[in-house]
Structures are given as structure tokens and as C-alpha cells.
Amino acid sequence: ESIGKTRVFSSLLQQTLDKTNNNNYSLLTAQIRIQQIHRTLVTMPPLAKSNKYDLLVIGGGSGGLAAARRAGSYGARVAIIESSGRLGGTCVNVGCVPKKVMFNTASVAEALHDAREYGFDLGTDEKPKFDWNFLKQKRDAYIKRLNGIYVNNLAKDNIEYIEGKASFASENKLRVEYNGQVEEIEAEKILIATGGHPHIPHNIPGAELGIDSDKFFDIEVQPKKAIVVGTGYIGVELAGIFNGLGTDTTLLSRSGEILRTFDPIIKNTLLEETKREGVRLLTHAKVHSLRRESSNNPLVVEFSSAETGEKTTEEFDLLLWAIGRDPNTHDLNLGVTKVKTNPKGYIVVDEYQKTDSDNIYALGDVSGVAQLTPVAIAAGRRFSDRHYGPPQFKNSKLDYSNIPTVIFHGTCGTVGLTEPEAKAKYGEANVRTYTSTFVNMYNAMTSHKPKTAYKIVVTGSEEKVIGVHLLGRDSAEILQGFAVALKMGATKADFDSTVAIHPTAAEELVTMR
Q1: Taking the CB of the first residue and of the last residue of the chain, which one, N or C, has fewer CB atoms within 10 A?
Q2: Which residues contribute to the annotated binding site for FAD?
């Protein structure tokens, strides 16, 4: 079968299965529809397929899809190659999208916990039961629908979708393995957007018995007791979700802090709130070994920490590694090109995503710069605007300053410089901060009183706002508008002259003095 026929069959079959799962089709209707699809494909001539393109994109994640579709909109002949069988990359399949579903679930659990304090009689003294597997099936079905939407969008945009494994044969040729076949295809430009994967340590006995953040979404049964290793944003979020859904959760930090790169008002306040919410946080911690006697036995973890002392042994249902990510470059055969990687394996690019090869580019997580989905999307669109768009885009590139980012659990957000970064850049005498710590009005009615903490960082006599840092309920939704303000060069006076919305937490940002 040609690549084109395979893509069409997969897309139509997926649509049929989705409609069957959603009860739009009966099993008989679905069977008839599949037979119709098969007859059509058997009798139709092979779809036109080129072996030379204007652009070949390796990787069907956020950045690759954005670049491919934008290039296609300008009339470029584009093909995108994805090896996993699922479009959408980390974000859609094992990242921000399913993680947000889990955060929403934990938020529902919090609302149920607070319901009685708002006057609701739940009718029983027992906690409402939570069915982890039920949620998993609904979440997986949602992700599957998104995968199908991406396939359909590529078809609508006349972009060839090749489900296969790509590696370089030369500077402008790729060797593609698909359906047991191998084919070489050529392009004027090749874009690497292969993303990354979670790092698993290789020097700890039994490390493979733990899971990574990708495998978090494969969990079928909620663990009663879990240990999360790593206190970057992934570790903090997943530990918070476990804890919010009732899992006895331990979080290991190799230092004495969490969220190392965030502003002190966020990381210091959230550290205390995380412990207060019930997560056991162990600092200056190290995992020494993992072992499990059989699949039915608990996982035995040997670790040390400042709180537990030397080499404590404890049983858990699972251990989750959240100790960083590595780029997906090892199978690309970059040695036949001029593309260079840094010591961590990330592809070295300039401000226009160009590598040391004249026709090879890279963007998104594989380049190691601001590993966020919206960044990859923006970089991908600018890449295609520059190469295939009208003349006004010939110098289009992404500005990596003032990129907002958020954590959903515990909820916080940051844009611009932290206070230490600002003082290092402008000098301590030229930096001023405004802060506010308070209890959100929602918690005025509850017995637990988590802190909300905001900080504005300004510089110069005009007090230009160069950083906004938020911790607390709804921070992720509040931040976007203030990121626009920073991008436009707003001053503290601009904030002060804005009429507040009352009663909201966000009004603190325009009333701080």
C-alpha cells in the first residue's frame, strides 16, 4: 500500500471507531462503513506521492504540526513524519493536555472536600468514591479524538502524513521506514521537531522499576502510596495531583527547595503549602536502589534524606522519576550531516532555528530552548512565515523574552524576570518589588487557608514592570493578560491607573502600593 492510502484508511477508520465509541454508530453500521472504506481503497488508484518536497518535518508534535500547516497554507509541498502512530507530541498525548484533565479532577476532589463548609449535605459521612480507571478511559478517549482531529487537519491542508521512522541519509535526504518498507525522500528544507523524553537514571540499581511522567498516564489503578523523585514543575505537579486525589504522597528533593528557577515568593511559599496540604517533602534526598520481589509485591525503595537520615527502606506502590528530560536525537543519524548537538544532546540552532547545515532546522524541545508547547508552536509558525510567507515575514523570529509559564497544581504562574534575575541584570539599586500575601476569598469559608502570594518586579525611575509572579487559585488564568502588559512595556503607573475588578484576587495586581 502507498503511504497516502495508508493515511486515508487510518483517518477514515479512526473516524468510524470514534463514532462507534460515542454511540453515534451501531456495531452493524460501523461494520458496513468499514467494508465501504475497504472497497473504496482497493479499487481506487494509488494516491499521488512525491519523493521530493519543499519541506520535510520530522516529528508530529506541536511545533512540527504548526510549521507544516503554516507552510502548507502558503502552498509549499510538505510532508510530516511521525514514528509513534499518534500526532500531537508530548503535550497532547503524555503532557499538558492529559495532565490538565488530571488537575481538573483534583480540583473536583477539592470542591467535594469543601462542599460541607459551603452548606452542602453530601448525604454520607464517607468520602465520595473516585474511580481512577473510569477517568483514565474517558481521558484516553478524549486524547484519541484529538489525535484524529490532527490527522484530518493534515488531510484538509494537503500535507502528506507519513507514519514511520525517519533518519538522515544525507544533508537533504531522509531514510524513512514504514510498514516494513524503506524509502528515501528528499526536500529542499528539513525541520527537526522530534521533542524529548523523560530521563531515567542508569546508575541506580532497579531504576527501571520506577515509571516516568509519560507512564503516569498508563496507570490503571490509583496507587495508595507513591513516591515522586524530582521537584521541577513536573514532579511538583504530579505529586500535587496524586495527593489531591487521595494517594499518600512523598516528594524527594535533592536540594532544600522546589521549583529552583522560579521566584522566591513562589517556590518558598509553595514549599510550605505543599507540606501543609499533606505531601511528605524530603530534602537533600537521594535514591539508592529499588527492588520488587514480584509483580504483586510492593516496590521497596532505599533512600536517604535530611529528614530520615542515612539509607531508609520503605515500601511504595510506585516510584515516579521526574528528574528532567532528554532530546530525541539519538536515532536521527545526525553524523551524516553538519548538525551539531551540545553536551546534553540538544541540537544547536541560531535565533532563526537554523543548524550548521544550510537546509536543516530544528525547533521545540529538541533544541532545548524554553521547552513549552506554545513556544514550539510560535517558533514553527515563524519558521514557515519566514521561508514560505510574504516578504514582510522574511526576518520573522521568536522573541524568547517574557514567555509566560504556569504550573497547575499547586497553581502558580510567572512571566519576565525573577527578583534575583532582575537584580543581576539591572543592579540591586535599580530594582524594586511590590508584594502581597493573602487568603483567597474562596477560602474565607473553608477551614484550610492556603496562601495566595503575588509579586511585581519593576526597574528604573519609570518603574517598568519586568516580572509578574503569582501563586494561588486561578493564577494560571490570571497571568495571560499580564503577560500582554509586560510585552507592551507597561509600567507600575499603568497598573495603578487601571480600575480594579472587585472582589477578585487579580485586583491585588492593580492595587499594590
Answers
A1: C
A2: 100, 365
